[in-house]
## 1
Amino acid sequence: MLTTDVRPGTNLVTIEYSGALNADEMVACRAVLERVQEEHGTLRLLARYGEVDMTHIEPRAMWEDLKNIPLIRHVEKCAIVAHQDWLRTISDVAGRVLPCEVKTFHLDEYDAALTWVTS
């Protein structure tokens, strides 16, 4: 399940993901990101990952996720909070090529991630 929330009055979008993923959730996430970007010009993202069930990700969800690529240029900072080493490693590598700051945090560092992404 993928859910998004916006900190009122800010450009901070929090994303929570765990379990399965379907295309409708990705479409809804993109709508939130686009709305916040239009309102504020930039985005700050705080993504927290629970258990990722790779066997229950709809192929169309991955396609819908790719449609988020144009939004990357509007991201100022992105904090990734996860317990999976592989996910934090991928995020660290992506941070080297993306035009925004990306930093990874362990699940027990959520407050530090929030402080960092909003500073």
## 2
Amino acid sequence: MNYAGKNVLVIGMARTGLATAEYLIKRGAHVTLNDMKPETACADEIARAGAIGAEAVVGGHPEEIFLRADFIAISPGVPMALPAIVKAQSRGIPVLGDMEIAFDEMKGRVCAITGSNGKTTTTALTGRIFSDAGLKTVIAGNIGTPLISFMDHDSRDTWFVCEMSSFQLESIDHFRPCIASILNLTPDHLDRYNSFESYADAKRRIYRNQTTDDFLVLNGDDPLLRHEEARSRTFLFSRKLQLKEGCFLQGDGLMLSSRNGSGVLMPLARIPLKGDHNIENVMAAALMAHLAGIPSESIRRSVEEFRAVAHRLQFVATIRGVDFYNDSKATNVDATIKAIESFTGNLILILGGKDKGGSYAPIRDLCPSHVKLGILIGQAADKIEAALTGACPLARVGSLEKAVETGFERATAGDTVLLAPACASFDMFHNFEHRGDVFMQAVRGLEKRAG
């Protein structure tokens, strides 16, 4: 698309919106940035907008700025169902996300990863494997730096390994990854989607533009994924199935099999990440790397050297025999269940935050065998308490710092205090990273006081 002289409205003034605005301005567009937040809450963003030559309209979504745009660039956090966007689309005004805008100019190849859980760990590991193998690799998307930020340095020999959320996938049009993966599908973001099916359909958009020249990697243990019908060449990974082609368990070893070759990739004992879900993440990453032509020995070496990503079952400290783990990225119930199942028991579990519309009842079955105490914080505390009462002892506290203190007071040597909230963070924190950082700071403070 030729952006020179076009009036472009960019919705959302966080990291992605500002990066998109800067990209478009460099290509000659007249850009207006818009955000619901009041001026007092986004002074820094308004200053940045001015510095790059964009107009800023904040405190609401006035319809007139939508209807005068030649096209609209939408940030992931903004729903496509926003009334002003729906009206603009009805007038024929295109609405695109940053991933689609970047892809329009891209020369390199994309390996795109989505799923309800495990996206960031799998994306980071896949990028590490590609890079260690000598491939020019960029890790981008929902994992941190927007893809669009790299387009000024794009080259034909670059692999863009991208984490993609359902929000980002809502706004793609022609985006086509050479390799795509859906890791799993479980209920999430039901505060944004009107049903689980519409959320799952957004995830499935990751492969809708693929052709027979492309690869799709799916979780064979997920009943919603193992029978997907796609034009691309489909490969499964599985902890339960023996596969002719794909990545699977055989005894205590991880097997890789495809037309590129087959054999034992590595013993399970050599995987450094905790939890069965991380075995699946390793399988997905290894299979994608294998399909990209990376030798098994190189994949094995990268996996063995990889360590947990921050805020994802991240070990923090041991204080007087009590372990502390930060899984702040467990922002839905399924992620929390996976975190709980990574331990044999003796857990003091910190839960709560902003409710996302799902049920907390699935956690209940694990409580008698795994959870000594549930400590509840945040907006969703009442709902979680109603779901878990009688399954394990519960305590209510007013802050995450108090939850850490209470957990340590109630723990004995051999116990684990685990932050795995099953909720979004926005009731008390800027994001899940901020929540995890506060947890780790509280643990570090406790460590100092405990000597």
